[in-house]
Write a structure and sequence with these properties.
This protein has 140 residues and is mostly helical. The chain is 54% helix and 4% strand.
Amino acid sequence: MNISTRFAVAIHILTLIDSKQDGKSTSEWIAGSVNTNPVVIRRLTGMLHKAGLVDVRPGVAGAKLTRSAADITLLQIYKAVNAARDDSLFAVHEHPNPECPVGQNIAGAIVPVFSLAQKAMENVLQEVTLDQIIHQMPVS
């Protein structure tokens, strides 16, 4: 699963958990909505649990949010599923030709721009809550 998919699936998982206030949101049920294997759901739910966003207990079916959806930002979710480490969203190709003037300097020229772009994206994610995403869907 690539980075962007992991992030989107984590949002999907949390949205489903929020919709099942009775806590009966099993990995099988969530996997049916996401259309993936329950193992993938359990792995991501484990990451969300480690980040303190969901409460799960071994041997007990279901998961619950640890706080209101209005108190969970997309940045928290993004970081919970290790979508990208600091300054690593954009990869720079390794081993450019050190004999080439461009190859010698390309990383130094683009890495600061990539860092600014990632920070800008993370600033946007910090301002959007899971609750806002939930309320954008016409679910009955």
